[in-house]
Amino acid sequence: MECNKEEAIRAKEIAENKMRNGDFSGARKIAPRAHKLYKDLDNITQMLMVCEVHCGAEQRLLGNEMDWYGILQIKSRKVDEAAIRKQYRKLALRLHPDKNKFPGAEAAFKLIGDARVELLDKDKRSLHDSFCK
Prior knowledge:
It comes from Cephalotus follicularis. This is DnaJ domain-containing protein. Residues 67-132 form the J domain. It holds the Pfam family DnaJ. There is one protein chain. The chain has helices spanning 2-20, 24-37, 44-58, 68-71, 81-95, 105-120, 122-132. By secondary structure, the chain is mainly α. It has one domain (2-132): DnaJ domain (Helix Hairpins, Orthogonal Bundle), CATH 1.10.287.110. Helix 2 packs antiparallel against helix 3, helix 3 crosses helix 6 (105-120) and helix 5 (81-95) runs antiparallel to helix 6. It is elongated and about 55 Å long.
């Protein structure tokens, strides 16, 4: 069991280095391995959330438009405002820079804030949804 913990810590360090270099998709591939090797690894879910938000931001729509639903990790485009607010709160609690010290956490926090603003404004959301089609 101790061997798995050491390998998990090493995998987490590799993922964190990738995050420092801006390779969030690479870190997203390695971090779950670390979690699988040792379930009680500190802050691995926070690391994964940062990676997921940045990977969602890398996915672009037509005209180089951001995929706000992808950033908030919302699968359906037919969600109501309450679901958007709930998902934003869930992510904001884990991504707030005071609580999440991983590289890219502050930028991820700003991205989810921008996504919330865009999706809660009816006009901006309908324009965004037209890009999605």
